[in-house]
């Protein structure tokens, strides 16, 4: 749907008080990473990402702990020099101020929850 008058695009749809299938909230896109932010508050964010096979995020740090839960597929996550392989249903906490990166082994989707202090 396109936003016209009272119609809302799916990305702008109010998702509160609805049963959600998180992995269905963002589609795979060939050759890229796509995302959809579900919650963006001063206290923190919840974002759903999809990664095409071979895509990833380069090494970086964040000032807050972040919880990643894999919703579909599999990936590798590097945290401070240690490598972890995750698949659907797995979660990991990436500690604040530690370098981390990730790469898709297969196409995968993840939920990223970051709580700010």
What does this structure look like?
- The protein is mainly β and 117 residues long.
- 0% of the residues lie in helices and 50% in strands.
- The chain has strands spanning 33-41, 44-51, 56-60, 66-72, 74-79, 82-87, 91-94, 100-104, 108-115.
- The strands form two sheets. A five-stranded antiparallel β-sheet has the order 1-2-9-4-7, with no helix packed on it. Strands 3-8-5-6 form a four-stranded antiparallel β-sheet, with no helix packed on it.
- Strand 5 and strand 6 form a beta hairpin.
- The chain is globular and about 40 Å long.
Number of domains: 1
Which structural class matches the secondary elements? Answer: mainly beta
Tally of DSSP helical segments:
0
Neighbour order of strands in the largest sheet: 1-2-9-4-7
The CATH architecture is Sandwich
Shape field: globular
- Which percent range fits the helix content? under 10%
Whole-angstrom Rg: 15 Å
String of helices and strands: EEEEEEEEE
* Annotated CATH topology: Jelly Rolls
- CATH superfamily descriptor: Jelly Rolls
Major β-sheet profile: 5 strands, antiparallel
Measure the end-to-end span. Answer: 36 Å
The portion of residues forming beta strands comes to: over 45%
Notable features of this structure?
117 residues; mainly beta; Jelly Rolls; four-stranded antiparallel sheet; 0% helix; disordered N terminus
Show the helix and strand layout.
Elements: E1 33-41, E2 44-51, E3 56-60, E4 66-72, E5 74-79, E6 82-87, E7 91-94, E8 100-104, E9 108-115
Antiparallel strand pairs: 1-2, 2-9, 3-8, 4-7, 4-9, 5-6, 5-8
